[in-house]
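Posting here for the record, re: zinc ion.
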Amino acid sequence: MRPPARAFASEIRAIPPEVRARMEGVSWHGDDPRCPRWDELAYLQLDHVSFEGTGRGELVVAAPVAPRAVALFRRLWELGFPIRQLRLVDDYAASDEASMAADNSSAFNFRLVAGTDLLSQHALGRAIDINPVENPWRKPDRIVPEAGKAFADRGDLRPGMFVRPGPAAALFDEHGWEWGGDWRHAFDDHHIVWSRAF
Ligand SMILES: [Zn+2]
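Prediction output follows.
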């Protein structure tokens, strides 16, 4: 991992009208009272190191999480940690499966935890998924997404993987993010969540 020569740049904005139009009825469902209102969400544009060089991506998170997300992505940039791509899940019709299969990193999506009736932390804009192929969701008998099977051996360390101990996991701790890789019911290595009070 080598950090880029130029400084990290980012922008935090209220959700712009053209982004609302992309999200409405896709990742955002305002008819459900549990869905965050527009002013409770923020639109981020973020520089990131990619596997080819650098890129600029977008992310929607809960407004109070926005500065915390920017601080974390700034540190990942400074580490030279590669992120495949950061596109809104709306570009995948709000399909978590399709977004993961494309190794896309994303945050807000008003949805349930897969296979349950529980609202996901993504539905509140508190959770961010990063490099789901390099960091697949794992149980002994199941790995999601399919392409993540190539990364089932967590000891075979390659770029874009989160492991503990490791520099990215140390950042999550330092910045106060809970990491799904520490869970024991299933390992969710691509998932980080702001589970503390705002
Ligand atoms: Zn997640």
